[in-house]
Amino acid sequence: MRLVGSAITIAVAILGFAAIAQQTGSGVSQPPAEAPPAPAPPPPAPTNGSQSQSQPQVDESALRYFASQGDTRRVNAEIARLRALYPNWTPPSDLSQLSGSPGAPPPDPLIERLWNLYREDRIAEVRAAIAERQATDANWKPPEELVTALETVEARRRLTNASDTGQWRTVLSVATEVPGLLTCMNVDVLWRVAEAFARTDQPNRTRDVYTYILTNCATPAERLATLQKALLVLPEPQVTALLQFERRTGDTPDDFGTIRDELARRRVERASLDSKMTASADDLAVVERMIQTSGEAGPVLILGWYNYHHNNPTRALELFKTALDRNAGPKAAEGYAMSLRALNRLAEAETFAYEWRERAPENMKIYLDVATALLSQDPPPRLDTQVVGRIVPVVMAQRFSDAAQALGWYSYNTEQIRTARDWFRTALSWKADDEPSAYGLALSTQRLNDRGGFNAVVAQWRSRSQRIADLADGVNPATGRQAVAAQPAVPQPAMTAPPAMAAPVETAPPPAQPRYAPREVAVERVEAEQAFVQTEENVRRRQTQARSALGRNCAITRNPSGLSADAALTRGWCLMEANRPLEAVNAFDRAIANGSSRTREEAAYGKSLAYLRKNLTSEAAIAAAEAPQNRERRVELGASILTQRALAAYRDGRYVETLHALSERARIVPEQNDLLLIRGWSYLKLGRFDDAEKVFRAVQQTGYSEEAAAGLNAIREVTGQVRY
User: Fold this and answer.
1) Counting Cβ atoms within 10 Å, is residue 680 exposed (0-12), middle (13-18) or buried (19+)?
2) How many CA atoms lie within 13 A of 720 on its CB side?
3) What was the pLDDT predicted at 15?
4) DSSP letter at 475?
C-alpha cells in the first residue's frame, strides 16, 4: 500500500508519529505528547491530465470503469481517492476520455468483471476470481488500484467489526496499518477511531480526530454529528473548544446551536443536583425554551429539580406536574411528592406518594418519609381512617423504624398508650440503638403501670439516656401530654387528626415447621363465643328498637347525609340488624359527624361492631377511637378486635402474630379454651414444644380432652417422645 501525500499527513495528525514510524521505518519510537491537527491537503498542481515523470504511473482503471457505468458518485469518490494518493495528479477535464476514447486499448473483460463485483461489494468473489486467473497465468497481475481498493474495503470491515465488538486496541491497530482510511471519505471510520482513543483513555487524541474532521471535512451534517459524538466522550471544556470551528458563512454554513443548548442543559442539570451550584440566567432560559419547544420530559425534570433544590418548591411542583403529564414516571412522582412535603401539604403528599410507592425504591422511601412527617405533627393530626389503615401495612412490610417510632408517638399523644408501647417495641426491634423509641417505650410502660417492662427499659438505657434515667428517678414523671416535648424532631412539619391504629405485629423468622399437620381447632366456635365481648343482648336490643322505629324504611337504600344525627344512628342499628354492616358504617359516620357526645359514642361503638362483622379489624380499632368509650366497651371492643386478629393470623400461618394478639387479649380478658387451643397449636408450629404441652395439658383439665389430646399426640409425633 502506498503511504504518500496527505494520507501520511492525516495519519501523523491523528494517530501520532509512532504509528507512522512503524510503517515507514523512520525510527521515531515515541509520539509527541500533543499531535497538532492536520492542515487541509494543499491543492494539487495542475498537470493537464498528464502524469509527471517523477510520480509513479496512476492506475485509472477503476475511474474508467465507473465512468463507463455512468456512476457519478463512484467517479467523484475515486477522483478524491487518487488525489489523496497522488497530490500532483489531475483528472482529465473531459471524463468521456475515460470511457472508450479513440485509440484506447480495449478493456480487459476480466478487469471489467472484477470492478463490477467490487462495485457490488462482493469482495470474496473478487479475490476468488483473481486467484483463479493467477492460477492459469502466473504473470498476470490485477490492477494496483483494484488491489488497493480491496485492501481498503477489507481493512474498513475489520475496523468496523472491532469497533462494534468493543475491541478498541484493534481499531487503532487497523487504523495505523491502513492510514488511507483516515480521510473525509470515511468519516464513520474517523468517528470510530476517535471513540477508540476515548475508550483507551486518550481524550486528547480523540479531540485531535474531531478537530481534523471539523477542519477538513465539509458536509454540515457530518460536522454536526461529529460534535454530537464529542458530547458523549469528551469533557465539556473540550467540546466547547471545538465550537470555534463552526462555519457561519459559505454555501453550507454550520448550525451548532443544538450543541450549545445541550451544554447549557448539562450545566443546569449539574446545578439541579447541588444546591450550592447556581445556573446562569442564560442557561436557565435555554432549558425553559426546550420545555416550550419540545414535548420531552427530560428538560422539565431538570428544571423541576433545580427549583426544588434552590428553595422554590411552588415552581418545582408545577414542573413536576408537567413532567408527569409527559409520562416522566417515578422520578417525576418523587419530585412531586417531595415538593408537596416542602410546601407542608403533607396530607396531599401522603395520598399521592402512596399510589406511587411500589414503582421504584425512591418512591417507597419518599412515601415512608412523608408518612412519618404526617404522623409526627404537634398537635397530632386528625387522620382519615383509610390513611392510617394504609400506612401501617407499608411500615410493617418495609420495617421502617422512623415511621414505627412516629406511629408510637402518634398513638401516645392520642391516648392509645398500649398501641404506643407496641410500636416503640417494634421500632426498637428494627433499630436497637434508637433512643427516642426507647424513651417512648419507657413512658408508655410507665403509663400502663407495666413495672416489669419499665424496669427492663431503664436497666438497658439508664447509662445511655439521661431522660430515661430521670424518668426512673422521678425527675420527669409521665403525665398527660408531656411526651410531646420528648418527641424527636422530624424532617418536615405536617398538617391534618387522630383515630386509633392497628398495633404492630411482632415479626420474627419462625423456626423449622414440624412435619405434623395439626387438625384445625374449632375457629368457628371461637367466633360464635364472642357474645360476652360484644354484649350481644344489648346489641340485639338496639337493633330491634331501630327496626321497630323504621319498619320497612330500613330496607330502602338511601344516602344518610340528609339525616339528623339521631336518625342516622337509628338507621345504622337497623342496618346492622339487616346484616348490612358497610351501609351501617355510612350511617354511623353521619351520626359521629353531627351528634352530641352521647350520640357520637354510640355511633363509634356501632361503627366498630360493623367493621368487626366484616373482619376489618384495623378499621374497627380506628372507629372505636373516634369517640370516647366507657371502660366496659373499651374492653369489649379491644378483646373482640384482638380475637379476630389472632384468628386471621392463625389462618394465614402467621403464628408469631397469633401469639402476640392472644397475649394482648389475655391482658384485658380471660382466655377461653378455644383460644388456648389456638395458642397451643401456634407454639407447636413454631417448635416451642414445651410451651405447647403446657397449654394442651391445661386445656385438657378443663374438659376439652379430645382437642387437647390431638395436640399432645402431635407433639409426640414430632419429637418422638411420649409426654406424661
Assistant:
1) buried
2) 0
3) 59
4) S
Contacts 24+ apart (CB under 8 A), 677-683: 677/521, 677/522, 677/704, 677/707, 677/708, 677/711, 678/521, 678/523, 678/526, 678/646, 678/647, 678/650, 680/708, 680/711, 681/518, 681/521, 681/650, 681/711, 682/650, 682/655, 682/658, 683/659
Question: Using an 8 Å Cβ cutoff, are 443 and 483 in contact?
Answer: yes
The runs of H, that is alpha helices, within 326-376 are 330-342, 346-356, 361-375
Inter-axis angle of helices 187-199 and 203-216, nearest 10: 160
Domain residue limits, the chain: 1-107+143-233, 524-667
Identify the CA nearest to 127 among candidates 154, 156, 158, 159: 154
Taking the mean position of all CA atoms in its chain, how far away is CA 265? Answer: 23
Burial code (b: 16+ CB inside 10 Å, e: under 16) for 22-53 equals: ebeeeebeebeeebebbeebeebeeeeeeeee
Residue 76 vs residues 116, 131, 266: alpha-carbon distances, Å = 17, 29, 41
What's the CA gap between 122 and 65, in Å, rounded?
16
The per-residue pLDDT for 141 is: 81
Amino acid at 373: A
Output b/e per residue, 421-457; b: 16+ Cβ within 10 A: bbbbbbbbbbbeebbbbbbbbbbbbbbbebeebbeeb
Q: Kindly report the CATH number that applies to the domain delimited by 524-667.
A: 1.25.40
Total count of residues recorded for the chain: 724
Integer Cα distance of 23 and 138 in angstroms: 29
Please write the tens of the pLDDT for every residue from 418-456: 889 999 999 999 999 999 999 999 999 998 888 888 999
Contact 357, 394 (CB under 8 A): yes
Rounded-to-integer distance, Cα 350 and Cα 374, Å: 8
Q: Under a CB-based contact definition with an 8 Å cutoff, are residues 555 and 532 in contact? A: no
Which of 151-160, 592-601, 607-616, 625-634 is predicted least confidently? 625-634
AA letter at 506: E
Of the two residues 260 and 75, the one the predictor is more confident about is 260
pTM: 0.52
Query: What is the reported pLDDT for 475?
Result: 61
Burial per residue of 665-678, b for 16 or more beta-carbon CB atoms within 10 angstroms, e otherwise: beeebebbbbbbbb
C-alpha–C-alpha distance, residues 338 and 327, integer Å: 18
What is the distance between the alpha carbons of residues 713 and 247, in angstroms, rounded to a whole number? Answer: 94
Contacts of 329 (CB under 8 A, 6+ apart): 359
| 471-485, 530-544, 663-677: range with highest mean pLDDT | 663-677
Cα 192 from Cα 172, distance rounded (Å): 9
Give per-residue pLDDT as tens, 525-543: 344 344 334 455 566 666 6
What 3 state SS string does 585-634 have?
HHHHHHHHHHCCHHHHHHHHHHHHHHHHHCCCHHHHHHHHCCCCCCHHHH
